[in-house]
Amino acid sequence: MQIAVSGGKGGTGKSTLAVNIAIALKEYFDLTLADLDVEAPNDHILLGIKLQNEEPVELFIPRFDYSKCIRCKKCAEVCEEHAIITMRDGTPFLMPTLCSSCGACKIVCPVEGAILQGKKLMGHTYVTKTPYGFPLVTGKLLEGEERAMPVVVAAKKRAKTLNKELLIVDTAAGTSNTVSKALEDSQLIIAVTEPTPLGLHDLELTLKLSHIMGIKARIVINRGDLGNKNNIRKLAHRYKAEIVAEIPYSENILKSYVEGKPVVLSDCEEAEIFRTLAKEVADYLR
Ligand code: SF4
Ligand code: SF4
In what residue span(s) does the 4Fe-4S ferredoxin-type domain sit (predicted)? Predict the structure, then answer.
């Protein structure tokens, strides 16, 4: 089984919800939490742990064996990214930042062994033990690298190989193709929003995406006491997505960030919200 925690712009409290609900859901399922917000993963920070068991995420780039290359320029001609430039005599050179790793150059090269398998580092994945009885899988895109998809795919694959009863994915903000990839195979999306015009706008995009992907959505309103929730209620009604929890603006949650100790572990009122939500999710999944 898989559920996803998703939502709009960064800072809506998506990761806070993901780590707290993961801890609370551990009571019901053997689970893995996967942080697929690969451009800015922060679940490990909220859990107060250091990332471990690093594995590289690498893609193909061509490496030329100039002793075999016949300077035919075919590799440069086929490259849609213009990542291969050639000298006047046909000698090819790669501009690695432009290469999309499509492999077309290797396919068209008429000389066996003139293009060798090179590797381009895109980022890393990690599997980290947490003190809460479940592993955290994290994808982290290399700084300056723009293509997040290979890292999302690699991290999700690594999370699935752990073969737990439940996989909780914490997606990036928004509705990009990497978010869709993270959401794939989910039985439920918990859409985190806040009562602001931007929050409402982003929530609608998330609900639309869940509708297109045929995945049920539930809504959690973060900082629910700071704005008008009527429009969120209307949107929830329109998309048949129940509002399952409201989290108030909370000093206790802020303190939990500072201490790196998830709030669900405490006895405060906010902890009970996460525990109740986890029970509802567990009931839904079973
Ligand atoms: S792998 Fe694709 S993008 Fe990269 S150099 Fe070859 S043809 Fe161009
Ligand atoms: S296609 Fe192969 S042989 Fe032709 S220029 Fe490129 S690397 Fe050299």
Answer: 60-90, 92-120
**Nearest C-alpha to atom 2 of ligand 1 is from which residue?**
102
CA separation for the pair 286, 281 (Å, rounded): 9
Place of tokens 């190989």: 161
Phi, psi for residue 106 in degrees, rounded to 5: -70, -35
Domain at 20, CATH number: 3.40.50.300
Q: Is residue 80 located within the same domain as residue 218?
A: no
pLDDT in tens, 60-118: 999 999 999 999 999 999 999 999 999 999 999 999 888 999 999 999 999 999 999 99
Percent of the chain with pLDDT over 70: 99
* pLDDT tens digits along 212-243: 999 999 999 988 777 778 889 999 999 999 99
Residue 194 and residue 93 in one domain: no
Structural domain total, the chain: 2
Here the tokens at position 240 are: 């048949």
Please state the rounded mean pLDDT for residues 32-43: 96
Show the tokens assigned to 129: 């033990």
| pLDDT at 145 exceeding the cut of 90 | no
136 and 168, same domain (yes or no): yes
Domain check: are 102 and 187 in the same one? Answer: no
Residue 5 pLDDT more than 90? yes
Is 120 a domain residue?
no
Return the ligand number nearest the Cα of 82.
1
Q: How remote is the CA of residue 148 from the centroid of ligand 1, in Å?
A: 18
- Residue 52 shares a structural domain with residue 72: no
Check residue 11 and give left, alpha or beta (phi > 0: left; psi -120 to 50: alpha).
left
Structure tokens at 194: 């806040």
In terms of domains, do 162 and 266 share one? yes
Distance 167 CA to ligand 2 centre (A): 45
| ipTM higher than threshold 0.85 | yes
Residue 25 maps to a domain: yes
Best residue for ligand 2 mutational test, from 61, 63, 65, 73 (most atoms within 8 Å of Cβ) = 73
Sign, Cα dihedral of 41, 43, 49, 52? negative
258 lies in the same domain as 172: yes
Q: Give, for ligand 1, the residue of 84, 95, 106, 107 to mutate: max count of ligand atoms closer than 8 Å to Cβ.
A: 84
